[in-house]
Amino acid sequence: SKILIIDTDTAGDDCTALLMALRWPGVEVKAITTVAGNIPLHLCTRNALTTLETAERPDVPVYPGAVKPLMRGLFTAEHVHGPDGMGGSNFPEPSLKPREEHAANAIVRLINEHPGEIEMIAQAPLTNLALAYSLDPSIAGKLKHLWVMGGANNFLGNDSPAAEFNFLVDPEAAHIVVHAGFNLTMVGWDVCHRQPVMAEEQLRLIEAMDTEFSRFYMKVLRTNMERGLKQHGFRRLSHPDTLTVAMAIDNRVMARSNRYYIDVEHKSELTKGYSLVDLNNILKKEPNAEVCLEADLERFREMVFSLLKQR
Ligand code: BDR
Ligand code: CA
Hints:
The protein is α/β, with parallel strands linked by helices. It has helices spanning 13-23, 41-55, 78-81, 103-113, 127-135, 139-142, 165-169, 171-178, 200-209, 212-220, 222-232, 240-249, 297-309; strands at 2-8, 27-34, 62-64, 118-123, 145-149, 184-187, 198-199, 236-237, 254-260, 262-264, 275-277, 289-295. InterPro entries: Inosine/uridine_hydrolase_dom (IPR001910), IUNH (IPR023186), Ribo_hydro-like (IPR036452).
Protein backbone atom coordinates (compact mmCIF):
# COMPACT_ATOMS: atom_id res chain seq x y z
CA SER A 1 0.00 0.00 0.00
CA LYS A 2 0.94 3.62 -0.49
CA ILE A 3 1.80 5.64 2.62
CA LEU A 4 1.13 9.37 2.38
CA ILE A 5 1.58 12.55 4.38
CA ILE A 6 -0.48 15.43 3.00
CA ASP A 7 0.46 19.02 3.71
CA THR A 8 -2.48 21.31 3.06
CA ASP A 9 -3.92 24.81 3.44
CA THR A 10 -7.28 23.10 3.63
CA ALA A 11 -9.88 24.91 1.52
CA GLY A 12 -11.95 23.95 -1.52
CA ASP A 13 -9.97 21.63 -3.75
CA ASP A 14 -7.64 20.76 -0.84
CA CYS A 15 -10.65 19.10 0.83
CA THR A 16 -11.56 16.97 -2.18
CA ALA A 17 -7.88 16.02 -2.50
CA LEU A 18 -7.94 14.85 1.13
CA LEU A 19 -11.22 13.01 0.59
CA MET A 20 -9.72 11.12 -2.35
CA ALA A 21 -6.61 10.05 -0.44
CA LEU A 22 -8.59 9.15 2.69
CA ARG A 23 -11.08 6.96 0.81
CA TRP A 24 -8.91 5.41 -1.90
CA PRO A 25 -8.31 1.66 -1.47
CA GLY A 26 -4.68 0.83 -0.85
CA VAL A 27 -3.77 4.31 0.36
CA GLU A 28 -2.74 4.89 3.97
CA VAL A 29 -2.77 8.55 5.03
CA LYS A 30 -0.28 8.62 7.92
CA ALA A 31 -0.81 12.27 8.72
CA ILE A 32 -2.32 15.51 7.57
CA THR A 33 -0.27 18.62 8.28
CA THR A 34 -1.82 22.06 7.94
CA VAL A 35 -0.20 25.33 6.97
CA ALA A 36 -1.45 28.89 6.52
CA GLY A 37 -2.20 29.74 2.90
CA ASN A 38 -5.66 29.89 1.36
CA ILE A 39 -7.01 30.87 4.77
CA PRO A 40 -5.51 31.38 8.24
CA LEU A 41 -4.09 28.27 9.93
CA HIS A 42 -6.86 27.66 12.49
CA LEU A 43 -9.41 27.44 9.66
CA CYS A 44 -7.18 25.07 7.65
CA THR A 45 -6.98 22.79 10.67
CA ARG A 46 -10.71 22.98 11.29
CA ASN A 47 -11.49 22.18 7.64
CA ALA A 48 -9.10 19.21 7.66
CA LEU A 49 -10.94 17.84 10.71
CA THR A 50 -14.32 18.42 9.04
CA THR A 51 -13.06 16.54 5.99
CA LEU A 52 -11.91 13.62 8.19
CA GLU A 53 -15.38 13.48 9.73
CA THR A 54 -17.02 13.51 6.29
CA ALA A 55 -14.65 10.75 5.11
CA GLU A 56 -15.32 8.83 8.35
CA ARG A 57 -11.60 8.62 9.05
CA PRO A 58 -11.29 9.96 12.61
CA ASP A 59 -8.17 7.78 13.03
CA VAL A 60 -5.97 10.06 10.89
CA PRO A 61 -3.97 12.60 12.93
CA VAL A 62 -3.91 16.30 12.00
CA TYR A 63 -0.83 18.33 12.96
CA PRO A 64 -1.11 22.13 12.71
CA GLY A 65 2.00 23.84 11.37
CA ALA A 66 3.20 27.29 10.35
CA VAL A 67 0.92 30.27 10.91
CA LYS A 68 2.80 32.41 8.40
CA PRO A 69 5.40 32.17 5.62
CA LEU A 70 9.10 32.06 6.58
CA MET A 71 10.05 35.66 5.85
CA ARG A 72 6.85 37.42 4.86
CA GLY A 73 3.37 38.30 6.00
CA LEU A 74 0.55 35.98 4.99
CA PHE A 75 -1.94 36.86 2.29
CA THR A 76 -4.93 34.59 1.79
CA ALA A 77 -7.43 33.61 -0.93
CA GLU A 78 -10.92 33.88 0.57
CA HIS A 79 -12.08 35.31 -2.76
CA VAL A 80 -11.43 31.87 -4.28
CA HIS A 81 -12.62 29.59 -1.49
CA GLY A 82 -15.07 31.61 0.63
CA PRO A 83 -14.56 33.22 4.05
CA ASP A 84 -14.43 29.80 5.77
CA GLY A 85 -12.45 28.16 2.94
CA MET A 86 -15.43 25.84 2.43
CA GLY A 87 -17.50 27.85 -0.03
CA GLY A 88 -19.18 29.77 2.78
CA SER A 89 -21.06 26.59 3.73
CA ASN A 90 -20.66 27.09 7.48
CA PHE A 91 -20.04 23.49 8.46
CA PRO A 92 -20.60 22.81 12.17
CA GLU A 93 -17.55 22.90 14.42
CA PRO A 94 -15.88 19.45 14.13
CA SER A 95 -15.71 17.33 17.26
CA LEU A 96 -12.30 15.88 16.33
CA LYS A 97 -9.26 17.68 17.75
CA PRO A 98 -5.83 18.32 16.22
CA ARG A 99 -2.62 16.92 17.75
CA GLU A 100 -0.24 18.93 19.92
CA GLU A 101 2.92 18.15 17.97
CA HIS A 102 3.96 20.81 15.42
CA ALA A 103 3.60 19.78 11.76
CA ALA A 104 7.33 20.29 11.06
CA ASN A 105 8.27 18.00 13.97
CA ALA A 106 5.70 15.41 12.92
CA ILE A 107 7.05 15.40 9.34
CA VAL A 108 10.63 14.88 10.58
CA ARG A 109 9.59 12.15 13.04
CA LEU A 110 7.40 10.19 10.63
CA ILE A 111 9.94 10.24 7.79
CA ASN A 112 12.65 9.03 10.19
CA GLU A 113 10.39 6.30 11.55
CA HIS A 114 9.67 5.04 8.00
CA PRO A 115 12.74 5.85 5.86
CA GLY A 116 12.19 5.24 2.15
CA GLU A 117 8.52 4.40 2.64
CA ILE A 118 6.54 7.63 2.79
CA GLU A 119 5.40 9.81 -0.09
CA MET A 120 4.45 13.35 0.68
CA ILE A 121 2.00 15.55 -1.13
CA ALA A 122 2.61 19.25 -0.62
CA GLN A 123 -0.44 21.13 -1.89
CA ALA A 124 0.06 24.44 -0.10
CA PRO A 125 2.78 27.01 0.56
CA LEU A 126 5.94 25.02 1.37
CA THR A 127 6.57 26.58 4.79
CA ASN A 128 6.14 23.38 6.85
CA LEU A 129 8.38 21.37 4.58
CA ALA A 130 11.11 24.05 4.54
CA LEU A 131 10.97 24.13 8.35
CA ALA A 132 11.11 20.33 8.57
CA TYR A 133 14.09 20.27 6.21
CA SER A 134 15.84 22.94 8.29
CA LEU A 135 15.30 20.84 11.43
CA ASP A 136 16.65 17.70 9.74
CA PRO A 137 18.08 17.91 6.20
CA SER A 138 18.42 14.11 6.09
CA ILE A 139 14.67 13.82 5.44
CA ALA A 140 15.29 14.83 1.80
CA GLY A 141 17.00 11.50 1.16
CA LYS A 142 14.57 9.48 3.27
CA LEU A 143 11.29 10.57 1.73
CA LYS A 144 10.33 8.18 -1.05
CA HIS A 145 8.70 10.83 -3.20
CA LEU A 146 7.65 14.47 -2.86
CA TRP A 147 4.74 15.64 -4.99
CA VAL A 148 4.55 19.41 -5.09
CA MET A 149 1.46 21.18 -6.34
CA GLY A 150 2.97 24.56 -6.99
CA GLY A 151 4.71 26.76 -9.48
CA ALA A 152 3.84 27.04 -13.11
CA ASN A 153 5.77 25.97 -16.12
CA ASN A 154 7.01 29.27 -17.41
CA PHE A 155 4.87 32.30 -16.68
CA LEU A 156 1.42 30.88 -16.32
CA GLY A 157 0.80 32.43 -12.95
CA ASN A 158 -2.56 32.62 -11.26
CA ASP A 159 -1.94 35.02 -8.41
CA SER A 160 0.59 37.26 -10.08
CA PRO A 161 1.42 37.31 -13.79
CA ALA A 162 4.59 35.41 -12.94
CA ALA A 163 3.67 33.14 -10.08
CA GLU A 164 1.32 30.48 -8.83
CA PHE A 165 -0.28 31.01 -5.40
CA ASN A 166 1.58 28.37 -3.33
CA PHE A 167 5.00 29.54 -4.51
CA LEU A 168 3.97 33.21 -4.33
CA VAL A 169 2.85 33.01 -0.69
CA ASP A 170 6.20 31.59 0.46
CA PRO A 171 8.84 31.95 -2.26
CA GLU A 172 11.73 31.39 0.18
CA ALA A 173 10.24 28.10 1.35
CA ALA A 174 9.69 26.99 -2.26
CA HIS A 175 13.29 27.90 -3.07
CA ILE A 176 14.59 25.87 -0.11
CA VAL A 177 12.48 22.83 -1.00
CA VAL A 178 13.34 22.63 -4.72
CA HIS A 179 17.06 22.72 -3.90
CA ALA A 180 16.93 20.33 -0.94
CA GLY A 181 17.48 17.13 -2.93
CA PHE A 182 14.05 15.54 -2.57
CA ASN A 183 12.86 13.07 -5.17
CA LEU A 184 10.49 15.74 -6.39
CA THR A 185 7.70 15.93 -8.93
CA MET A 186 6.27 19.37 -9.68
CA VAL A 187 2.66 19.65 -10.77
CA GLY A 188 2.28 23.26 -11.80
CA TRP A 189 -0.71 25.49 -12.40
CA ASP A 190 -0.26 25.29 -16.18
CA VAL A 191 -1.18 21.59 -16.14
CA CYS A 192 -4.65 22.24 -14.78
CA HIS A 193 -5.39 25.54 -16.43
CA ARG A 194 -4.87 25.10 -20.18
CA GLN A 195 -8.24 23.42 -20.33
CA PRO A 196 -10.85 23.09 -17.58
CA VAL A 197 -10.23 20.03 -15.46
CA MET A 198 -13.91 19.93 -14.56
CA ALA A 199 -16.30 21.87 -16.77
CA GLU A 200 -20.03 22.51 -16.65
CA GLU A 201 -20.74 19.12 -18.25
CA GLN A 202 -18.94 17.13 -15.53
CA LEU A 203 -20.18 19.37 -12.74
CA ARG A 204 -23.78 18.66 -13.77
CA LEU A 205 -23.09 14.92 -13.52
CA ILE A 206 -21.60 15.37 -10.06
CA GLU A 207 -24.50 17.52 -8.90
CA ALA A 208 -26.97 14.89 -10.16
CA MET A 209 -25.26 12.09 -8.17
CA ASP A 210 -26.63 13.63 -4.99
CA THR A 211 -24.52 11.43 -2.71
CA GLU A 212 -23.10 12.58 0.61
CA PHE A 213 -19.68 13.06 -1.01
CA SER A 214 -21.02 14.82 -4.10
CA ARG A 215 -22.94 17.24 -1.87
CA PHE A 216 -19.75 17.86 0.12
CA TYR A 217 -17.94 18.49 -3.17
CA MET A 218 -20.53 21.00 -4.38
CA LYS A 219 -20.42 22.83 -1.04
CA VAL A 220 -16.67 23.18 -0.54
CA LEU A 221 -16.09 24.25 -4.15
CA ARG A 222 -19.05 26.61 -4.37
CA THR A 223 -17.15 29.92 -4.28
CA ASN A 224 -14.59 28.62 -6.76
CA MET A 225 -17.31 27.52 -9.19
CA GLU A 226 -19.21 30.81 -8.90
CA ARG A 227 -15.98 32.60 -9.68
CA GLY A 228 -15.59 30.53 -12.86
CA LEU A 229 -19.15 31.39 -13.79
CA LYS A 230 -18.46 35.11 -13.43
CA GLN A 231 -15.17 34.98 -15.32
CA HIS A 232 -15.99 32.59 -18.14
CA GLY A 233 -19.79 32.44 -18.26
CA PHE A 234 -19.80 28.77 -17.23
CA ARG A 235 -18.67 26.82 -14.19
CA ARG A 236 -15.20 25.32 -14.30
CA LEU A 237 -12.66 24.02 -11.83
CA SER A 238 -8.92 23.60 -12.14
CA HIS A 239 -8.55 21.08 -9.28
CA PRO A 240 -4.76 21.30 -8.88
CA ASP A 241 -4.53 19.62 -5.46
CA THR A 242 -6.88 16.72 -6.21
CA LEU A 243 -5.11 16.20 -9.54
CA THR A 244 -1.80 15.91 -7.70
CA VAL A 245 -3.20 13.36 -5.24
CA ALA A 246 -4.64 11.40 -8.17
CA MET A 247 -1.20 11.36 -9.83
CA ALA A 248 0.40 10.07 -6.66
CA ILE A 249 -2.22 7.31 -6.43
CA ASP A 250 -2.13 6.39 -10.12
CA ASN A 251 0.93 7.56 -12.06
CA ARG A 252 -0.95 7.16 -15.34
CA VAL A 253 -2.82 10.38 -14.52
CA MET A 254 0.48 12.11 -15.24
CA ALA A 255 0.28 11.68 -19.01
CA ARG A 256 3.55 13.42 -19.84
CA SER A 257 6.51 14.55 -17.77
CA ASN A 258 10.20 15.19 -18.04
CA ARG A 259 13.20 15.84 -15.82
CA TYR A 260 14.38 19.46 -15.70
CA TYR A 261 16.37 21.84 -13.59
CA ILE A 262 13.92 24.11 -11.78
CA ASP A 263 14.42 27.16 -9.58
CA VAL A 264 12.25 29.66 -7.72
CA GLU A 265 12.63 33.45 -7.80
CA HIS A 266 12.44 35.04 -4.37
CA LYS A 267 14.36 38.30 -4.56
CA SER A 268 12.43 40.27 -7.13
CA GLU A 269 9.28 42.12 -6.07
CA LEU A 270 7.86 41.80 -9.57
CA THR A 271 8.44 38.09 -10.16
CA LYS A 272 8.68 36.58 -6.67
CA GLY A 273 7.43 33.00 -6.62
CA TYR A 274 8.18 32.54 -10.33
CA SER A 275 9.18 28.97 -11.05
CA LEU A 276 11.83 28.64 -13.69
CA VAL A 277 11.86 25.40 -15.66
CA ASP A 278 14.99 25.12 -17.81
CA LEU A 279 13.18 23.42 -20.69
CA ASN A 280 16.08 23.77 -23.10
CA ASN A 281 18.82 22.90 -20.61
CA ILE A 282 20.48 26.24 -21.13
CA LEU A 283 21.95 26.35 -17.64
CA LYS A 284 23.48 22.86 -18.03
CA LYS A 285 22.55 21.97 -14.46
CA GLU A 286 21.63 18.57 -13.13
CA PRO A 287 17.81 18.18 -13.23
CA ASN A 288 16.33 18.46 -9.74
CA ALA A 289 12.70 17.71 -10.56
CA GLU A 290 10.32 15.70 -12.64
CA VAL A 291 7.99 18.27 -14.15
CA CYS A 292 4.49 17.26 -15.12
CA LEU A 293 3.73 18.53 -18.62
CA GLU A 294 0.28 17.09 -19.20
CA ALA A 295 -2.43 15.32 -17.24
CA ASP A 296 -4.76 12.56 -18.38
CA LEU A 297 -7.94 14.45 -17.51
CA GLU A 298 -10.29 11.66 -18.56
CA ARG A 299 -8.65 9.25 -16.16
CA PHE A 300 -8.71 11.88 -13.42
CA ARG A 301 -12.41 12.61 -13.89
CA GLU A 302 -13.18 8.88 -13.68
CA MET A 303 -11.35 8.76 -10.35
CA VAL A 304 -13.33 11.71 -8.98
CA PHE A 305 -16.63 10.24 -10.17
CA SER A 306 -15.93 6.85 -8.59
CA LEU A 307 -14.90 8.58 -5.34
CA LEU A 308 -18.04 10.69 -5.15
CA LYS A 309 -20.30 7.74 -5.96
CA GLN A 310 -19.01 5.83 -2.92
CA ARG A 311 -21.55 7.29 -0.55
C1 BDR B 1 -3.09 26.42 -5.22
O1 BDR B 1 -3.45 27.57 -4.47
C2 BDR B 1 -4.54 27.29 -3.65
O2 BDR B 1 -5.55 28.26 -3.78
C3 BDR B 1 -5.04 25.93 -4.02
O3 BDR B 1 -5.44 25.25 -2.84
C4 BDR B 1 -3.88 25.26 -4.69
O4 BDR B 1 -3.11 24.52 -3.77
C5 BDR B 1 -3.29 26.71 -6.67
O5 BDR B 1 -2.52 27.79 -7.07
CA1 CA C 1 -3.93 24.00 -1.55
